Amino acid sequence: MPLDERTTILRKNRVCFRCIASCDHLAKDCKAKVMCTECGSNKHLAALHVDGEQRHGGEQVANKDQSDDGANPRQNQHAGEITTKCTEICGNSPGGKSCSKICLANIYVTEHPETKVKAYV
After folding, report:
1. Which residues does the annotated region (Disordered) include (predicted)?
2. Which of 22, 50, 66, 90 could bridge 96 with an S-S bond, Cβ 3.0-4.6 Å?
């Protein structure tokens, strides 16, 4: 879901933009300890993180004039595509370590659209 849709939902439901957990206060009055896992900021959570491309309204699309030498892995990333990069050397531990991102989603069954299940995907 795009950032503007998320902020619209929060604003409509009068949810705090800082902790995203309360309708009893606004971000300026929020006392919760929060940290963005994307940039380390204590002003917002990752769900409301804005990177450079989003801030300037641009989508990340590969430039066809540039060569694909693998030097810039984000260069070839299509809009909406999710990639993960391991952030830690796993060493000799058996099985390695998963660094994949997870997202809470509402799952609906086609035959029973009124039934909703929340799951991480």
Report:
1. 51-79
2. 90
Within a domain: 82: no
Residue 108 lies in a domain: no
How far is the first Cα of the chain from the last one, in angstroms, to the nearest whole number? 14
Residue 105 — φ and ψ, nearest 5°?
-130, 150
Long-range contacts of range 111-119, CB-CB < 8 Å, 24 or more positions apart? Answer: none
| Tens-digit pLDDT profile for residues 59-106 | 443 333 444 444 444 444 445 566 655 555 555 555 555 555 567 788
Residues spanned by the domain of 33? 1-52
Q: Considering its fold, how many domains does the chain have in total? A: 1
Calculate the average pLDDT of the chain.
71
Give the pLDDT confidence score for residue 30 in this predicted structure.
Answer: 92
